[in-house]
Recover the amino acids of this structure.
């Protein structure tokens, strides 16, 4: 029990640290800013943050959510993304234990979290995140070579029909980033879980987006009518990765 607790604490700390880097990606990638060489700074006054201003979660709390110099408010996004990434990593560990899946899925979850926020705001998924997930898929294939065909088929199982939809609708039916995301996820999860991930994402997207449109209509806003599928597909991918096999087994049990 004690080693598990200690490992969980360490994993959470690593998770919130990576979450801090995700905030950098979320803020800078849409603006085409460098995420490596440019020093972290206050977006209001330009104050270059010191190391003690960058401690995940704790610095934001200690500063009261304000810049040390100009006292401008610091978005709550920063601690939320940090904490959420740590929680996602812990969830993966509790479900998968100490395994190659845990390592791959932790990186996957971080990529999905960042791309979801960016897509929600800009309706674009940076290609680098899809490329990262695809690289994880290649590692998954190499660690499970006897079942390599399932992953290769998974690459095309959802992405190929989506590409056909993209071609027929001339890009109005689905975004190119969503197609690449499902191709990369299919390579990582295999065809069964890729299809399940897409179905879950569609259900979540349909239900949540309808609710958001109703709320927007009540407020007289049309902004919420545009659908960013990335966050919903990401949620489907995460759920399928962790609980997909159980869901499929449960569903097939109705036909046994």
């Amino acid at each position: 029990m004690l080693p598990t607790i200690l490992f969980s604490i360490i994993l959470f700390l690593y998770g919130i640290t990576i979450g801090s880097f995700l905030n950098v990606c979320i803020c800078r990638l849409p603006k085409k800013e460098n995420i490596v060489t440019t020093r972290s700074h206050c977006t209001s006054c330009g104050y270059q943050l010191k190391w003690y201003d960058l401690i995940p979660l704790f610095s934001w709390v200690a500063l009261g959510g304000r810049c040390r110099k100009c006292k401008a408010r610091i978005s709550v996004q920063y601690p939320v993304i940090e904490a959420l990434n740590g929680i996602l990593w812990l969830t993966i560990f509790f479900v998968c234990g100490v395994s190659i899946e845990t390592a791959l899925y932790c990186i996957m979850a971080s990529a999905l979290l960042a791309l979801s926020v960016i897509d929600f705001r800009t309706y674009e998924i940076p290609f680098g995140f899809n490329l990262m997930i695809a690289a994880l898929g290649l590692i998954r294939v190499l660690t499970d070579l006897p079942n390599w065909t399932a992953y290769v088929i998974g690459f095309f199982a959802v992405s190929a029909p989506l590409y056909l939809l993209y071609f027929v609708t001339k890009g109005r039916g689905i975004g190119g980033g969503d197609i690449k995301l499902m191709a990369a996820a299919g390579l990582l999860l295999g065809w069964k879980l890729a299809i399940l991930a897409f179905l879950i994402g569609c259900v979540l997207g349909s239900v949540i987006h309808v609710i958001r449109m109703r709320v927007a209509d009540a407020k007289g806003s049309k902004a919420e009518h545009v659908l960013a599928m990335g966050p919903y597909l990401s949620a489907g991918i995460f759920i399928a990765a962790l609980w997909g096999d159980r869901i499929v087994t449960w569903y097939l049990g109705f036909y046994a």
Notes: Residues 126-256 form one domain. Residues 115 and 126 are 7 Å apart (CA to CA).
